[in-house]
Amino acid sequence: MAPKDTPSADRDIGERGLHAKHGDDPTLASYLSSLLYVLSFPMLVVLAYGGHWAGYYPYSAILWVFGGSLLLLVALAFLVMHFGTAGR
């Protein structure tokens, strides 16, 4: 028999995993990750348009700058998570 806090088929589908007692309290890293998730798209759009308005590149390059910035942000987040959890 599975413990009560383990999701299993014998529990109501609405309660599976909802009451698990795993002890993972929110950490600073989880808050920063959520903040990055919420703010990354608007921040990259503003930065891409801001670079055009500052005269760094033409209007036709905004999409390329945004795409490159998005890929760079994802790669940077991956590296931070990889090396931040490497010793665990």
Describe, in plain words, how this protein is organized in 3D.
Helices cover 56% and strands 0% of the residues. The chain has 88 residues and is an all-alpha fold. The chain has a domain at 28-84.
Describe what is shown at a glance.
With 88 residues, the protein is mostly helical.
The number of strands is: 0
End-to-end CA span: 30 Å
Order of helices and strands: HH
Using the CA coordinates, give the radius of gyration. 21 Å
Morphology: elongated
- Assign the structural class, choosing from mainly alpha, mainly beta, alpha/beta, alpha+beta, or little secondary structure: mainly alpha
| Poorly predicted segments | none
If you average the pLDDT, what whole number results?
A: 79
Helix content, binned percent: 55-70%
Biggest sheet character:
none
> So how many helices?
2
What is the percentage of strand-forming residues? under 5%
Indicate the topology.
Layout: H1 28-53, H2 62-84
Helix pairs in contact: 1-2
Give the tags:
0% strand, elongated, mainly alpha, 88 residues, single chain, 56% helix
